[in-house]
Design a protein that fits this description.
single chain; FAD/NAD(P)-binding domain; D-Amino Acid Oxidase, Chain A, domain 2; 2 domains; binds flavin-adenine dinucleotide
């Protein structure tokens, strides 16, 4: 399957046969979407050869840099989505995230990804509180038939005053989740080629342009999310950088839930007595529209101030580590999962809840290529 591959002379016959010969499906990107797609393809078509190509020599994708919320939307974010995209799109997004979480929990056991059933909790600035609290019944009715659960959101008096609680959510360790998905893919016989930077696709000739020359493909699924513009050119998926800080362990600090603020733009939780706090992109949208993994001092400072003044209520703390990760967002919140020609499909634009939606999108992507009857996937809009 290789042609003009500059590294070909460095590969043994064994390696060439294993990595590049008779590949049926080539997947670009080994994040949660790429791995889920690969697993689905091998489960439904075990004889197919599936190859995953990834640029990383060290992890760069969002799937191991996120906050590990297993969530499907807070009240303020859902209301914002209804205003921006309408009720129908909002229903579908919540349903896809809910189904994605259920697929993930069926695939990776609770202990293998340290899944913890901790409620999602939303807190507000005083000025906004009454407005959002009053909308709980409307949102509950709105999503009841999507989740098949009554009264998903409830008001409680909690650590930070009046809080909106969603007892259906949880949290997990994203690195453990991804290590397990990769293991499952390898056990199913998925082949990995890493350290390959794909710079373009020659769709009509079924060829990938890479830093090591040209690699041919039969069928290609692009799962590079926030990095996709560099490969696909103009497409409605922009990179959106998110900053995260984690503190050293703080004596006596614990939280019973995973917290959301500011329509999902800020989020925090506790892990091993540490505070993990992320977001703040709404403060500097222009500088954060990038796929470069750097830290933005203005946002890091905002997160530190928020930790000091509100979350940790004056407790002493030290920041142990800061990092950033890259989301894929666009004018529409729906992921893009479609064939862009007979042999090339994209499965990108996961937004801020890719841990939730990723497994569902993998199932959809694989079923479209395998032309499975995806009647249980009717929620999804393909265009
Ligand atoms: C800081 C942060 C916090 C988040 N918190 C949450 C959360 O709590 N809950 C939640 O549900 N979601 C969260 N998300 C979103 C979620 O992490 C993403 O939506 C999801 O991981 C996207 O998965 P993916 O597989 O589409 O892309 P990625 O995980 O980004 O994977 C893309 C892959 O493509 C590869 N790649 C890129 N360019 C190339 C190239 N040129 N050639 C070859 N390979 C390439 C990369 O190496 C990478 O492995 C968060 C995201 C961030 C950044």
């Amino acid at each position: 399957m290789s042609s003009n591959l500059l590294l070909d002379h460095k590969l043994s016959w064994w390696e060439s046969e294993y990595l590049l010969k008779d590949v049926d499906y080539t997947i670009l990107g080994s994040g949660i979407v790429g791995l889920s797609t690969a697993i689905e393809l091998k489960q439904f078509s075990p004889k197919s050869k599936v190859l995953i190509i990834d640029k990383k020599t060290y992890p760069i994708g969002a799937s191991t840099k996120n906050a590990g919320f297993a969530c499907f939307g807070s009240v303020s974010e859902i209301l914002d989505d209804i205003d921006s995209f309408g009720e129908d799109v909002c229903h579908k997004l919540i349903a896809m995230r809910w189904q994605g979480l259920n697929i993930l929990k069926g695939r990776v056991s609770i202990s293998e990804m340290d899944y913890q059933h901790r409620p999602g909790i939303e807190i507000f600035d005083e000025d906004d509180e009454d407005y959002y609290h009053a909308r709980i019944p409307h949102i509950n009715t709105h999503i009841e038939h999507v989740l098949n659960k009554k009264d998903c959101f409830n008001l409680r008096k909690g650590k930070y005053g009046k809080e909106i609680v969603n007892s259906l959510e949880g949290c997990l360790n994203p690195q453990m989740m991804m290590a397990n998905l990769e293991l499952q893919a390898r056990k199913l016989g998925v082949v990995f080629l890493q350290g390959i930077n794909v710079v373009g696709i020659e769709k009509n000739n079924c060829e990938l342009e890479t830093n090591v020359g040209v690699i041919s493909f039969k069928n290609l699924i692009v799962c590079t999310n926030g990095f996709s513009e560099r490969i696909l050119g103009r497409i409605d998926v922009q990179p959106a950088r998110n900053q995260v800080i984690v503190t050293s362990p703080i004596a006596g600090f614990s939280l019973d839930g995973c917290y959301h603020m500011h329509k999902g733009y800020v989020y925090f939780r506790e892990v091993d007595s540490r505070l993990i706090l992320g977001g703040g992109r709404h403060l500097a949208k222009e500088t954060e529209t990038t796929d470069v993994l750097e830290n933005t001092e203005q946002i890091i400072q905002y997160l530190k101030d928020l930790a000091a003044t509100k979350i940790l209520e004056g407790k002493d703390f030290e920041v142990d580590k800061v990092w950033s990760g890259i989301l894929g967002v666009g004018a529409d919140k729906m992921p893009i999962v479609k064939k862009i020609n007979e042999n090339v499909m994209v499965a990108i634009r996961m937004g801020g809840m890719g841990v939730a939606i990723g497994s569902y999108i993998g199932r959809v992507a694989a079923s479209i290529f395998l032309e499975e009857d995806n009647s249980d996937l009717q929620l999804f809009v393909r265009s």
